[in-house]
Automatic annotation (TrEMBL):
<comment type="similarity">
    <text>In the C-terminal section; belongs to the NnrD/CARKD family.</text>
</comment>
<keyword id="KW-0521">NADP</keyword>
<keyword id="KW-0520">NAD</keyword>
<dbReference type="Pfam" id="PF03853">
    <property type="entry name" value="YjeF_N"/>
</dbReference>
<dbReference type="InterPro" id="IPR000631">
    <property type="entry name" value="CARKD"/>
</dbReference>
<dbReference type="InterPro" id="IPR029056">
    <property type="entry name" value="Ribokinase-like"/>
</dbReference>
<feature type="domain" description="YjeF C-terminal">
    <location>
        <begin position="259"/>
        <end position="617"/>
    </location>
</feature>
<keyword id="KW-0067">ATP-binding</keyword>
<dbReference type="InterPro" id="IPR017953">
    <property type="entry name" value="Carbohydrate_kinase_pred_CS"/>
</dbReference>
<comment type="function">
    <text>Catalyzes the dehydration of the S-form of NAD(P)HX at the expense of ADP, which is converted to AMP. Together with NAD(P)HX epimerase, which catalyzes the epimerization of the S- and R-forms, the enzyme allows the repair of both epimers of NAD(P)HX, a damaged form of NAD(P)H that is a result of enzymatic or heat-dependent hydration.</text>
</comment>
<dbReference type="GO" id="GO:0052855">
    <property type="term" value="F:ADP-dependent NAD(P)H-hydrate dehydratase activity"/>
</dbReference>
<dbReference type="GO" id="GO:0046496">
    <property type="term" value="P:nicotinamide nucleotide metabolic process"/>
</dbReference>
<feature type="binding site">
    <location>
        <position position="195"/>
    </location>
    <ligand>
        <name>(6S)-NADPHX</name>
    </ligand>
</feature>
<feature type="binding site">
    <location>
        <position position="151"/>
    </location>
    <ligand>
        <name>K(+)</name>
    </ligand>
</feature>
<comment type="function">
    <text>Catalyzes the epimerization of the S- and R-forms of NAD(P)HX, a damaged form of NAD(P)H that is a result of enzymatic or heat-dependent hydration. This is a prerequisite for the S-specific NAD(P)H-hydrate dehydratase to allow the repair of both epimers of NAD(P)HX.</text>
</comment>
<dbReference type="InterPro" id="IPR036652">
    <property type="entry name" value="YjeF_N_dom_sf"/>
</dbReference>
<comment type="subunit">
    <text>Homotetramer.</text>
</comment>
Amino acid sequence: MIEAYSGGSIRAAEQPLLDEGLGGTLMRRAAHGLFRGCEEQLRLTEPRGTVVGKTAVVLVGPGNNGGDGLWAGSFLRSAGVAVTAILTGTRAHEAGLRALLAAGGSAVRLVPDGSGAGAPGQGTSEAMAASRPVGVEAAAELMASADLVVDAVLGTGARGGLRGLPAELVTAFRGGQRERRGTAENGTPRIVACDLVSGVDADTGEAPEPLLRADATITFGAAKTGHVVSPGEQAGGALTVVPIGIEERLGEVDVHRVQAADVLAAWPRPGATDTKYTRGVLGIVAGAPSYPGAAIMCTQAAIQAGAGMVRFLGDSTTRAMVLARSPEVVRSDEQPWDVHVQAWLAGPGVVGDESQAARVQAIIEAEEPAVLDAGALDAAARSVADGPLGPHKILTPHAGELSQIFEWLAGFGVADAPVRRTEIEASPLHWAREAARLTGATVLLKGATTVIASPVAVPGGEAGTQDTAASEAGTSDAGTSSAGTTDAGTSSAGTTGNGDDAAPGAAAASASEGGGRQGGKPAEPCLCLSVGDASPWLATAGSGDTLAGVLGTVLAHVAEHPDALAELGPWARGEGRWAAAAALGAGLHALASRAGGEGPVPPSVLAEHVRAVLTRP
Ligand SMILES: NC(=O)C1=CN([C@@H]2O[C@H](COP(=O)(O)OP(=O)(O)OC[C@H]3O[C@@H](n4cnc5c(N)ncnc54)[C@H](OP(=O)(O)O)[C@@H]3O)[C@@H](O)[C@H]2O)[C@@H](O)CC1
Ligand SMILES: [K+]
C-alpha cells in the first residue's frame, strides 16, 4: 500500500521542523535521497556500474525544489560526475548554488534565445548573476548531450504547469529528442524528477503540458496524491519515497494506493466452514438478444474470481449461451426482487431490452450492494433525482460514461454543469470525487490509473469501527443511513442548486462531512483509492465486462463479511468496504492483464488469468 498525501499535508508536517530551524537539514536529507536515485539511474547507463566521468544537467527552479536539485548536484559532483545547473528562474536557492559551485560544478543562467547577455533580473544573487547566460536552444542541447537530467524546476509549491522559459526549454528539448530519434546521435539522457515532475499538481495529479516525462521520481517524506493518480502518475516513472524525518507527523491520507501485494494478501479466500452461500451469491443482470457476449464475459469472470454462486437473469437466448459456456451458473426466470443474492451486477450488454431495463432499475432501488456498469449507468444517474444511491452501489464508468452521468446530473440540477470527457481525463480524481459526492455512490473511474471515490467518512481507525457497527443497516437504505452514521449536521445543499428539498447531492455531501477536510472547503467524499499497473493491452472491448464480473464476486463476499478486507486498513471496514472491494477487483483485473506476459489479453483469456492469479501453487 502506498499512502499518498496532499501537498498541504506535507507542508503542514514540515512546518514544525522548519520552525525549529531544521529546514536546511530536511533539504539535505531530501537532496541526498535524490542523489542516490540519480546514481542509480546513471549506473543503468554504464555497464561497469560507475558514475565517475558521467555528465548531469540539473534544471533548477526558483524555490526549494531547485534547492534540492542544487544540493543533489553538489553530491553528484563530489562523486565524480560533471554537473551543470541550468538556472531557469530569476532566483535560485543560495546555499544550494554555493554548495554546487564549491564542489566544482558549474551553473548557467537560462535566457531567451537571441537576448544576448540577458541582464540578470532584479534581486538576482551575485552567484547567479555571475553565471553564464545560455539561450533556450543551447540549453536544450546541453540537456540532450548529458547522461542524466534532473528536473528540479517545480515541486509542491507549483501553481499550474510550467510557464515561460522553463516551459520553452522542455518543449525545445523534446522537439530535439524527436529529431534525434533514429539518428546516430542517441542523445537520450535518463531523466529523474525531484519530488514531482515539474508542473504536475501534487494535490490533483493534473499534468498540463509541457512536461519532462521522467524515468524515475524521487519524492520526500511521503508520496503525494499527484504520484498515484492519472495523468501525473504516468509522467513520473518509477517512484521512490525517501524518508526525511516528517513521517510521524503526517496527517490524513488523501489517496490509498492499493498495490499487487495488497490484492493478493487481502483477496478473500474461503475458510473450512464456508459454503457457497457464505462465500457470496452474485446475481447478474446482463446481456440482451443483440449483446449476449457481454453477459458471457462478465459471468465467466465472476466464476473465475471465485464467486460462491452466480444467478443469471436475462433473456432466454442469452441465458442459453451463458449456460453453454458456464454450466455452473444458476439461471433464474424470476425478477430481482424475488431472488436472494448478496450482491448484484447489472448493466453489461443490456442495451435496448425493456425487460432488462426493468431489472436494472429494480437493482438500483434494491437494498443489496451492486456493481452498476455500462448500460446501467444512465439509469443510475437518472435515479439520483430521487435520492442518493449509497456507497454500496458501485458505478464503473470510463471518462466518456462519467461525462454522460454528469450530463444527467446537470439536467436535473444536481450538478452545476455538464463535464466534458477531456476535462475528466485531465483531472480524474477530482471528477470521481465530485461524482461520488453528487450521486452518493462509490465511483470507480477506469483509466490508465483507476481511481475510486466513495462518499464515506472513514479516515481512521475509530471512525471505521463506528461505521462497522452501522454497516448492516447501512446497506438497506444507504442514502440516508450514510448521512446518519456520520452525524453531519450541516449539509451543502446550497451548492446543488436544488432549493429547499434535500437534494441527493446534499445528502451525499453531508455523509462525507464527518470525515472532514479542513479549511472550510465544501464537503467531499473522503475515501479515495487508486489502482494502477494494468497492461495497456487491457484497452479492448470486453475487458470492462470482465472487470465487472470480478467486482461483483468480491462485492458479494464483503456484503456477507463486513470486515473481510480489514487487512487493507481501518478504512476498509464498514462502509469503507465497498470502495475497498472495488479496489481489490480492479487490482485483480490489472494483475490478470499481465499474468500471461505482456501482450494481447482477449477477455476470455483474461478471465482464465483471473483464476490463475488467485491459484496458489
Ligand atoms: N519545505 C521544506 O522543508 C522542504 C521542501 N523540500 C522541497 O521543496 C519543494 C517545495 O518548495 P517550494 O515551496 O519553495 O516550492 P517549489 O515547488 O520549489 O516552487 C515554488 C516556486 O516556483 C514559482 N512558481 C510556482 N508555480 C510556478 C509555475 N507554474 N511556473 C514557474 N514558476 C512557478 C514560485 O515563484 P513565485 O511565482 O511565487 O514567485 C515559487 O518560488 C518540495 O517540492 C521539495 O522538493 C524538500 O527539500 C524537503 C524540505
Ligand atoms: K521537480
